[in-house]
Amino acid sequence: MQKKKIILLVAILSVILSTILFYDKYFSASGFERITNGDRFIVWTVTTIIIIYYLKLDSDPQLAPLALSSDKEGSKKNNNKTDISFKNVAGLEEIKEELKETIDFINNSQKYTKMGAKIPKGILFYGPPGTGKTLLAKAVAGETNSTFLYASGSEFVEKYVGVGAKRVRSLFEKAKKDSPSIIFIDEIDAIGARRNLDSNNEKDQTLNQLLSEMDGFNTSETVVVIGATNRLDLLDEALLRPGRFDRHIYVGNPNINAREKILEVHTKNKPLHNNVSVKELANKTHGLSGAQLANIANEAAIIAVRNKKNKIDNKDFNQAIERVLAGLEIKNPSVLLKEKKTIAIHEAGHALVSKILKTDMVQKVSIVPRGQALGYVLKFPEEERYLYTQKELMGKITGLLAGRAAEQIIFKDITTGAKDDLTKATEIAQEMVCSYGMSTLGNISIDEYYIKNNYDIIRREIKKIMDKCFKNALKIVEDNKIILFQISDLLMKQETINNKELDKIFEEYKTKLDYAT
Fold this sequence. Notes:
It is a multi-pass membrane protein. It comes from Anaerosalibacter massiliensis. Strand 3 (147-152), helix 8 (163-177) and strand 4 form a beta-alpha-beta unit. Helices cover 57% and strands 9% of the residues. The chain is an alpha/beta fold. The chain has helices at residues 2-26, 37-58, 64-69, 71-78, 93-107, 109-113, 133-144, 163-177, 189-192, 201-215, 237-240, 256-267, 278-284, 290-306, 314-326, 337-357, 390-411, 419-434, 448-453, 455-479, 481-494, 499-509; strands at residues 80-81, 122-126, 147-152, 181-186, 223-229, 247-250, 361-366, 376-380, 496-498. Mean pLDDT is 81; it is low at 60-79 and 511-517. It folds into 4 domains: 2-60; 71-250, 3-Layer(aba) Sandwich (Rossmann fold); 256-324, Helicase, Ruva Protein, domain 3, CATH 1.10.8.60; 337-509, Up-down Bundle (Methane Monooxygenase Hydroxylase, Chain G, domain 1), CATH 1.20.58.760.
């Protein structure tokens, strides 16, 4: 603002001087005899430039006052009725049942107010990304025919102090005006993170405004705030208390029945071949989110079009699953023969140990490079699991370390190919030590503060688990080298092995499959 005033003052003085020189040009005045036409031209030019600069500065869209003026326009764009209902949401039956009370309260509020009940002011969806949190919020708005106001948490974060708080006020004013309405704040942790001494002043003001708005609803206005986050642990306690976000609903990855329903929704408008079994696809996609399942159905359709097919068959879906899980297939890889042999032994080690320990069902083994991986083993559990024993987790780590174990036994050396395996194995071991109480530290759960200040103790416990599992992997590979070579030779010959071909190799040798972990 100070800069703007200075430019304005200079512009006024320049205009006055230019006016005097213009008057002198046509009505000669004493005292200006030495001023030439060139001098006059320079003064007039400079004056014009200053005026243009001032006008441009005045209309600069980066200035805070004009940034604030765009709030109304943004609200108009967000003001819409959604046509999405619970019919469009598959596989979240328990959550839909929970939300029906809120929907009924909005649609038939009188019967609840007679009993003295109050509508929940806020619902917080939390869980991994891609599980349908935004879709659920839209469905609630659609079921109640409410105005749906969408906002991302990052929209309220500004470098200008007070802008975020003003946007929160504007959003709630709009919601109250168009009630009944649903305010959906996606990634709410961007503004609702826990306050501390290092907090940003603007963020704190924005959060304070959100807290006061959620606390100060008029009972005659039907406004429900729905928040979504992947990190519930980051949110401020004041935001989570009853009276603000009354209900916390976990939206996790779908189970096998939910996956089947989700795949049915995403394939109902697609021409499927008779060999496609949605139930089998649901079994193959363990641990995947709804967004990933939608992506698989779409990728399968794209692959079928690329191959000039009239219907999407099972092969297309299998390729789509690999595309989503392992990455893009590299058509012309420049992998040396020596490296290819190492990759074949590495992946054969994974397949061998996983098959013997029965940690997961091996679907496919491949040495075709995809994404950043030079080879991969697709594994899925034989049945839906929610609990794992200590032995089973040790078996998973052993299977992950088996690739490196095979390299060490066959080539007497190790490579960088185990980077991703080590990361996953360490994560499981850390969970065993810090979360599941499956170490010599005993039945305790260890928080982040303790880990940070006692890292050496935690590291030693993780190393004990990793060393034990690696030793077991070495023993299994050493005892079954002949099967390892059979798998790796077949991989070198045809690059991929499916579960039936793998079963055939094991049946030939009738190997003993009982190894202690």
